[in-house]
Amino acid sequence: xxxxxxxxxxxxxxxxxxxxxxxxxxxxxTFKKTVTSVVPGDVIACITHQSDFHRLAESYxxxxxxxxxxxxxxxxxxxxxxxxxxxxxxHFLELTFKQIIWDGRRLLGEDARxxxxxxxxxxxxxxxxxxxxxxxxxxxxxDEVLPAEALLMREVVNWFHEADGRSFNFRYPFxxxxxxxxxxxxxxxxxxxxxxxxxxxxxxxxxxxxISEYLSHHQSV
Length: 221
Fold this sequence. Notes:
It is a single chain. The chain is an all-alpha fold. Helix content is 64%, strand content 0%. It contains eight helices and no strands. It has helices at residues 7-23, 28-34, 54-73, 78-107, 114-118, 126-140, 148-163, 190-220. Helix 4 (78-107) crosses helix 6 (126-140) and helix 4 (78-107) runs parallel beside helix 8 (190-220).
């Protein structure tokens, strides 16, 4: 409803909204009673209470993939969907990095420092997290050279860090100084981003799985 609309137009639009709510049988009482209830015939989603970062990371990755597929089918909404996609991809990386660091530190006999991963000014910055992962990989596989996939990961991390250093810019129109977020970016090549994230997912899955397997074996000995 526009602030410049006439009182009559505003009232008419409000009545239309209220009418739609009544058609859908939605009011405050119904919402409160049913929002976390299983109602026959309704679409219900299950919440899995997780004890690690990995499963939640996978949820964000799958959310991004579903939206990418939808935009591939309906290009009209590509500009609308790109920022949620970028946020979900970025958050997938952040959570996956934290899982690798958590497991990797324990594998190497270090304090996992889980609070450090979740709280603090740099808790959401990808570059410092990736640097820790490179150090962990070097310690776990000292005779191996970082593969091409890891070098691609560096570039992906650097791009996300420059675009959204602290997981803010993909979620808000402007920063705390009211400066426009993403001001230096005009276009995002979704084809390039999706391809890079597919490689990143494959590589990170291998690292996560290997370190998790090593840790499980180490704890069972």
